[in-house]
Amino acid sequence: MSELGKKWLAEIHALAFSQPVALLNVCGGHERSLVMAGLRSVMPKWVTLIPGPGCPVCVCPEKDIAAAIRLAMAGKVVAAFGDMLRVPVQKEANQPRSLEEARAAGGTVVPVASPADAVVLADQYAGREVVFLAAGFETTMAPVAAALAGGVKDNFSLLLAGRLTWPVVAMLLAEGKPGFDGLILPGHVCTITGMEEWSFVPEKHGIPCAVAGFLPELLLESFYGVLQQLTRQEARLLNCYPQAVRPGGNSTARRLLAQVFQVVDAPWRGVGMIAASGYALQPNYGHLDGWQRYAPLLQDLAGEEGGKMPAGCGCAQVVLGKMPPDQCLLYGRGCTPAQPVGPCMVSDEGACRIWWRGGVGR
User: Fold this and answer.
1) How far apart are alpha carbons 304 and 300 in whole angstroms?
2) What SS3 class is residue 263?
3) Fewer CB atoms < 10 Å away: N or C end of the chain?
4) Strand order across the 209-212 sheet
5) CB under 8 Å to 123, separation ≥6 — which residues?
6) Cβ neighbours of 68 (radius 10 Å)
7) CB of 261 within 8 A of CB of 143?
8) Sign for the pseudo-dihedral over CA of 212, 111, 320, 18
9) What is the phi-psi region of residue 24: left when phi exceeds 0, alpha when psi lies from -120 to 50, beta otherwise?
């Protein structure tokens, strides 16, 4: 650990608390960093660090993945981010259960690292139709918007599964007993959107929060900032990641998001419908909507909600910060990265996979 990290850790240990405190993080990247750095093992015993809703792959509606599988098996070229390929679905009887299986069965499924890579496929497969399964939070949706605004080929469309992060936290807080005392906010999301949209957390609910970076010392600084507020009975919104997060966020990215997308109520897999939590295409981009373009092929899937998790799978509870991964009945007992049952064991931003790779509960 760096000297700066040791300083912040000493500051945290010097704080006095008479009762346990729980901090929820809203970023899979944060969870990965703190597990790999072993931060839980060096924190005071009175602090619990809870992994929260930081994995867009984990909450991608099952119907979107099922639609992508069906299109791949119908001869379309399907592009998706790499970790989407292994997410299993329960639907599609007598069909492949994942995009990876669809590819093994002869479908054309191409893993991509960016939206720009997906757009390029429309040139590479000029005689075929290309469909991009676009799942992600604000950080991913901004480059998706930029790619669409820049113009795409007529043979390109997408299944849009973009989600916003703050509405799920608003939903948890509206329940009245969220299970956490402080909030660690997603640095990369706030780089795009700014931190101001999170002001409702301290102002309406009296819960302190801090935007965090990804290095161990930056995470520790954000932990200290929230914990110090709790000792003083304060509730403010701190920016502990000024290296990247500026007031108002990235104006160009926000303009593109507003130009290409509209915000709508949207389903989260295993969780249900969350108000104002999803992106949909603006009407002038509606011709790129794969659900509309292939409606006859997908009509039996279109009206469904996000879908349930497999029997015994605790992914939804893990995503909401209501269950640690190692308390899921399937964790390590039939559900591992090699044989995932739920999506949280698939994605590099899924808490179950992160904990398993970090050796927690093994």
Assistant:
1) 8
2) strand
3) C
4) 47-51, 21-25, 182-186, 209-212, 237-239
5) 153
6) 32
7) no
8) negative
9) beta
Q: What is the mean pLDDT of residues 25-36?
A: 95
Tokens of 44: 């005071």
- What contacts 120, CB < 8 A, 6 or more positions away? none
CA distance 160 to 60: 10
Model confidence over 113-134: pLDDT tens digits?
A: 999 999 999 999 999 999 999 9
What gap in Å lies between CA 170 and CA 53, rounded to an integer?
A: 12
CA angle 182, 185, 186 (to 5 degrees): 155
- Alpha-carbon distance of 49 to 77, in angstroms, equals 41
For residue 267, the tally of other CB atoms under 10 A from its CB is: 23
CATH 3.40.50.11750 fits 1-311, yes or no: yes
Q: Which band of pLDDT confidence, cut at 50, 70 and 90, is reported for residue 178?
A: confident
Kindly state the tokens that stand for 75: 């001869």
Q: Which residue has the tokens 């918007």?
A: 145
Query: Is 126:155 a contact under the CB 8 Å cutoff?
Result: yes
Helix, strand, coil share of the chain (percent; to 5): 45, 20, 35
Alpha carbon distance 70, 73 (integer Å) = 5
| 44-53, 92-101, 282-291: least confidently modelled range | 92-101
Alpha helix locations (H) across the chain?
3-14, 28-36, 39-42, 56-59, 62-73, 99-104, 115-124, 138-149, 166-174, 187-193, 200-205, 216-231, 251-260, 290-293, 295-302, 315-319, 351-357
Beta-ladder partners of 163: 278
What are the residue ranges spanned by the domains of the chain? 1-311, 315-355
